[in-house]
Design goal:
Length: 250
């Protein structure tokens, strides 16, 4: 599947004077892109985007993200002064993701907001050390303290559970990754986290997580009929309980 180079689009929309760096994070730097992977892009800028820039960037991303033969793009923009020096919770200046496309089509424009989940994102970008434009991430960003990384990933659990029925594969794999990160202090790819978690799951839950992993790797269809569906909620509940025990015991 062809992969979009976001740099020309960003330079044309935001201008070289504002962009400090463009970096990859997520699957691309953890274990390679999988069939269902987005292209995860972090952009560090000097100043917050203006309204015209926000609307123009949304329009350009809607045009190219997930188009014929192209991967979806998840693009996050942070103002350097909002994340360096580091403080919690961090502020996300702009977010584009395909799950928000209906909102964009209604005219919603992404605005700055606090975003605890920037903590794992910045951690992955720093660990991956992959720049598409500008210097390395370490020259632009401070490392995230482990205590903030841990509380940030746990903060997202309630929303994940709310999304379980319509985003089953991603929720199960993300819960497995949260558990793995809390236990090992390392962010792994979703399939690697599923392998780690499966070894610690009761036998009745392993098949459910294995099915999510197989879908992610392109080895199974995105279906949760009959048997797999009936086991989803108990598996997710077990993962949430394990996360709580790991976090509470730290």
């Amino acid at each position: 599947m062809p992969e979009l180079d976001p740099v020309p689009l960003l330079r044309a929309t935001l201008g070289d004077d504002n962009i400090l760096g463009v970096h990859l994070h997520g699957s691309a730097v953890l274990a390679g892109l999988r069939p269902h992977s987005d292209i995860d892009v972090l952009v560090v800028v000097r100043r917050s985007l203006g309204g015209v820039e926000r609307r123009a960037l949304v329009g350009e991303l809607m045009r190219v993200s997930g188009g014929p033969g192209a991967r979806p793009v998840e693009l996050v923009i942070v103002v350097q002064d909002e994340v360096r020096p580091w403080r919690y919770p961090p502020v996300c200046d702009f977010l584009y993701g395909e799950w928000l496309r209906e909102e964009y089509e209604r005219g919603v424009v992404p605005a700055p907001e606090t975003a605890p989940d920037l903590a794992p994102l910045l951690t992955m970008a720093l660990a991956g050390d992959t720049s598409l434009y500008g210097p390395s991430p370490a020259q632009l960003l401070d490392p995230v303290p482990l205590v903030d990384l841990r509380r940030a990933i746990v903060a997202g659990v309630p929303q994940l559970m709310a999304d379980l029925d319509h985003d089953t594969r991603n929720v199960l794999l993300t819960l497995a990754r949260i558990w793995t990160t809390l236990a090992t202090d390392t962010i792994r790819s979703k399939d690697a986290a599923a392998d780690w978690a499966a070894e610690r799951l009761p036998p009745g839950h392993r098949a459910v997580l294995a099915h999510a992993r197989a879908i992610y790797l392109g080895d199974a269809d995105e279906r949760w009929d009959d048997g797999p569906r009936s086991g989803v909620r108990p598996c997710a509940d077990f993962l949430v309980e394990a996360i709580g025990l790991e976090y509470g015991g730290s």
